[in-house]
Amino acid sequence: MNKKSVIGFMFVTIIFITGCGNNSTPTPTPEPPVIKIAWVAWPGAYPLMLIEELGLDVKHGVRVDAIFYKDVIGIVNDLETSKIQGSITSLDDVIKQNNRHPNSTKILFVGDKTQADFVVAAPDIKRIADLKGKRVGVLLGTTFGELMVQRMLEDHGLSVKDVELVNMDASDVPDAIPQLIDAGATWEPHLSKAKANGLIELYSDANDLTLPLSLVLALETKTIEEHPEAVRGLVAAWFEAVALWQADPEKYGPLVAKVVGGTAEEAANSQADFISLEQNIQRFADESLTKEAQVATDFLISTGQLNRAPDIKTLFDGSFLQQIKEN
User: Fold this and answer.
1) What percentage of residues in the chain have a pLDDT greater than 70?
2) Which of 178, 168, 228, 218 is nearest to 198 (CA)?
3) % the chain with pLDDT above 90
């Protein structure tokens, strides 16, 4: 074979090999995991819905399925069976979950700390003292329900023994008075419905600044360990959603109202004291969260809901907050 033939053969071979390389199928990028997170009709949870609706989850490398629940009890049941991976919930719910299943969930951030729980009552009940012998609807075993009512009564010379506590979700309170109860603990948007029904606002938790009322996002420890990048994306998407909601609640009110009920105006005017990224980092560092969790723990033990005190510091994982700040 002459020199030209050798060069020609080599050239054809190179083209063939290169062509084969160009036709190879690229390795597909793995789909980000879907994280199912529960929320209820509480203003401090509204940004979670925006994460999914506005595509902020995909932007940050995660897929969020924000699942709306009418009541807290359904969330607890689905967490137990791993139908969902997390929830926007209260400190006491996280404490109880970890008491049943140690180290099963962790708190990633505080969503809000709004003093916006209320007790509403029939019009003939003018004072808290008038509740003696009456039926009070409250979600038993909760700091935002039972503990609030307990302290309200104690501050006015009564105790829970002076009333009949009826286990009831906040969403059911407005329509339960006066047939099933005489007063009940609730929050927006149910407070507006109660007032529209002619009920009166008897008490607000703004009168007790020591109540452990932080609303937090808690996630399965398993999900955190298996998908840390997706979890970081979730936390980043939350703070972006909060910023959007705070900047223009009127724009996003119709989206929320479509799910939780009520009007777009009511959703837009709902109050929530959102905790910023910087405030979260500070609260995780100065242990104010652990102190708040201790108050909740003491209440749960006193009511027989805990058989032991958990290691409170293991409930929190603030590492993602710091990562987001640094990026």
Assistant:
1) 90
2) 178
3) 54
pTM for this model (two decimals): 0.77
- CA within 13 Å, CB half, 31: 5
For residue range 115-131, what is the model confidence (pLDDT) as tens digits? 678 999 999 999 999 99
Q: Are 170 and 72 in contact (CB under 8 A)?
A: no
* Residue for token pair 């993602």: 320
Closest-CA residue to 231 (of 241, 242, 240, 220):
220
Tell me which residue of 213, 215, 90 sits closest to 148, measured CA to CA.
213
Domains annotated for the chain, with CATH where assigned, are: 34-114+213-326 (3.40.190.10), 117-207 (3.40.190.10)
Cα 44 to Cα 48, 49, 55, 181: the distances in Å are 9, 11, 19, 27
Nearest one of 169, 178, 127 to 152, comparing CA atoms: 127
